[in-house]
């Protein structure tokens, strides 16, 4: 198999869709096919299309080469995946992944560090459908076995966790899941399959918010789920039945982002580590939470399982509360205040994990999450230095 950088350049570029007779002919990128109706030559052709609805053009909602090129590219990037489906948001991808594995009367285990809207979907929709949910300590590892009930069907992981960046022992949890016949769903948005090849670790359904690093430019919302061979037919079927669809224009934006993702991730990692290392030396900072820093509680597992780090991490402050953090963030020149991340630009957000947690509590001072973009790290450091001076001047 070729290296990941080569794969990311070639993935999903099928010459059938680029008007070429081989990979070297035709246009480089799959064209944008805007389509609802697909026209057939004859009754025989209509019936043939209906007999094999997942092969070739059928109806716009079943996709065109614009969607298939992105799906195939994502499948190729997570070796071991049998296929990928797309969703209008990352949250929709998580919702369909959960609907794929659980039925009424079942029970699912969800990490307490999960992305907040994942929890809200579980609490407000899954429970209404008679699917029970238990939140577990993200650091539970093989101990998750004790939480498995007779009706448990699936375990949802997110590593590192949203806001607090706990690294989960994915192989230990997967081993329990396989022994007990449970499906595993991983929210792999932070690492992408480039930094955490999830299928190789035995994950069944690997989800990404393409909104983040694949899109990479803060201008598109798309989600994906890649499935193991065992789960692919059911994922695909559930996705179809819920009428999930992503526009060809948004797919083209994701494919454009994807081609530079490996390069961008390396720069996000380097810039983030430079800023994180500097924050560790600042007297106002209590703790920097970044799994790629030696000394971080997640460092050993991160080093064992991941091929790199991305640009999102957090730090806590020694003094003050969330209400005081305006002095730090309001006048930053290079950090935007806003949701989402994974774009080329730096972002900052005060976060409160304990507002939603139930199985564990986060210990520490006011928590600030940063996404480190592609700016010069020296400028970001100078900006944060001035912000932290404004912050400490309040006390
Ligand atoms: C942003 C995010 C999502 C959801 O993505 P959207 O496209 O915004 O719905 C899911 N999981 C994680 C970890 C995220 O950061």
Automatic annotation (TrEMBL):
Keywords assigned by UniProt, alphabetized: Lyase, Pyridoxal phosphate
* Single biological process term from Gene Ontology: L-cysteine catabolic process to pyruvate
Q: What enzyme category does the UniProt record give? A: lyase
GO MF: cysteine-S-conjugate beta-lyase activity; pyridoxal phosphate binding
The prosthetic group or cofactor this protein requires is:
pyridoxal 5'-phosphate
Where does the record place the modification N6-(pyridoxal phosphate)lysine? 212
Pfam name, any one: Cys_Met_Meta_PP
**What residue spans carry the region label Disordered?**
1-21
Q: Cite the EC number.
A: 4.4.1.8
- Could you tell me what reaction this enzyme catalyses? L,L-cystathionine + H2O = L-homocysteine + pyruvate + NH4(+)
Superkingdom to which the source organism belongs: Bacteria
Q: Which residues cross the membrane?
A: none
Give the record's family classification: Belongs to the trans-sulfuration enzymes family.
Q: What's the protein called, per UniProt?
A: Cystathionine beta-lyase
Task: Please name the source species.
Answer: Glacieibacterium frigidum
Q: What is the lineage of its organism?
A: Bacteria, Pseudomonadati, Pseudomonadota, Alphaproteobacteria, Sphingomonadales
Q: Which gene encodes it?
A: metC
